[in-house]
């Protein structure tokens, strides 16, 4: 039976600095009714990702911001609750983009079928979805690692960083992770197989990184920025590659970082060392190669060559606090909210 109401979390105000609980509001609305050719989707799992902080801001970006009073955006794994579309059956699992709410309606465009009984449906939000795809294409297409290269990745136990490091190891590289805290660093070494992992909270991070990367850095997968990049920049080798998929350290910033202007140093480093630094938006730039990624990643997972950690939080009402914690690095693995029980 259907629920009586559709729970939804809307953007109540645009945060200045870090989001707070007052940035969001939990509402109850009428469950939408699908028209001819449409399906009613019930969200079972919701993905929480750092990019959502950018959507809360009105600043110009690669995507439109969430409007005030609108439902927060986000990828979801749903089951078809009701179908008026011959291409979808009731109970079928799909990857969708219904956002922070229980129910959404779709005409079928953009939905990715996951089958009737997927083994790990929530993996479509992580290792087999946007984070895994980001790691795969960013490292292999832009980073172009070669055997013997030194690859450094920050947020090393997050869903992107952990995958970047493991793929780099499969390609014969030395992999150095940077993560927050001893537990995460130990996990990166013991479980993910990184050669080393450094705690970004250490006062002597730059010195530790220089000692660990005595032959310099050939690929730096950038998803954090801030003091981590400051430590990396002097160690970059001639011809180094820097894929850029995010700057989580800056998402809550309200002003430029303190200290000297780093721009001239960065530009000089890019020029003198002939470094390639390229930003990318995964589905905008690589959607046509998703099948290639899915086939290879599926094989690696089946063979046990890639390990994946999911941080699952039960209860839709916990979404705002979980998201705030994500931006503070409190999650350990891919953060997913279990919103509802499956059929």
TrEMBL record:
Domain Enoyl reductase (ER), residue spans: 19-337
Its EC number(s): 1.3.1.-
Alphabetical list of Pfam families matching this protein: ADH_N_2, ADH_zinc_N
Example of a GO MF term: oxidoreductase activity, acting on the CH-CH group of donors, NAD or NADP as acceptor
Keywords annotated in UniProt: Oxidoreductase
Domain of life: Bacteria
Name of the protein: NADPH-dependent curcumin reductase
Organism, scientific name: Vibrio thalassae
């Amino acid at each position: 039976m259907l629920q009586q109401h559709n729970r939804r979390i809307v953007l109540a105000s645009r945060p200045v600095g870090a989001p707070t609980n007052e940035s969001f509001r939990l509402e109850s609305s009428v469950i939408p009714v699908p028209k001819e050719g449409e399906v009613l989707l019930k969200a079972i799992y919701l993905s929480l990702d750092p990019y959502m902080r950018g959507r809360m801001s009105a600043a110009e970006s690669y995507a439109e911001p969430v409007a005030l009073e609108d439902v927060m955006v986000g990828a979801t794994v749903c089951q078809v609750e009701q179908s008026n579309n011959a291409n979808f059956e009731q109970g079928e699992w799909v990857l969708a983009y219904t956002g922070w709410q229980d129910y959404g309606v779709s005409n079928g465009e953009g939905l990715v079928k996951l089958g009737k009984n997927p083994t790990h449906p929530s993996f479509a939000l992580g290792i087999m979805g946007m984070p895994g795809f980001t790691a795969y294409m960013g490292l292999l297409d832009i980073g172009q690692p070669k055997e013997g290269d030194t690859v450094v990745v920050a947020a090393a136990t997050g869903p992107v960083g952990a995958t970047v490091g493991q793929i780099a190891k499969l390609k014969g590289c030395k992999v150095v992770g940077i993560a927050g805290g001893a537990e995460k660093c130990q996990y990166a070494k013991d479980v993910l197989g990184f050669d080393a992992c450094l705690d970004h909270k250490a006062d002597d991070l730059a010195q530790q990184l220089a000692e660990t990367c005595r032959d310099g850095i050939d690929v730096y997968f950038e998803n954090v920025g801030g003091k981590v990049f400051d430590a990396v920049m002097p160690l970059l080798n001639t011809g180094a590659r820097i894929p850029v998929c995010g700057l989580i350290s800056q998402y809550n910033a309200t002003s430029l970082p303190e200290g000297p202007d780093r721009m001239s140093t960065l530009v000089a480093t890019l020029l003198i060392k002939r470094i390639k630094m390229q930003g990318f938006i995964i589905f905008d730039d690589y959607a046509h190669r998703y099948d290639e990624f899915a086939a290879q990643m599926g094989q690696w997972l089946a063979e046990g060559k890639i390990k994946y950690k999911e941080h699952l939080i039960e209860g839709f009402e916990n979404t705002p606090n979980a998201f705030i914690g994500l931006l503070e690095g409190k999650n350990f693995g891919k953060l997913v909210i279990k919103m509802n029980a499956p059929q």
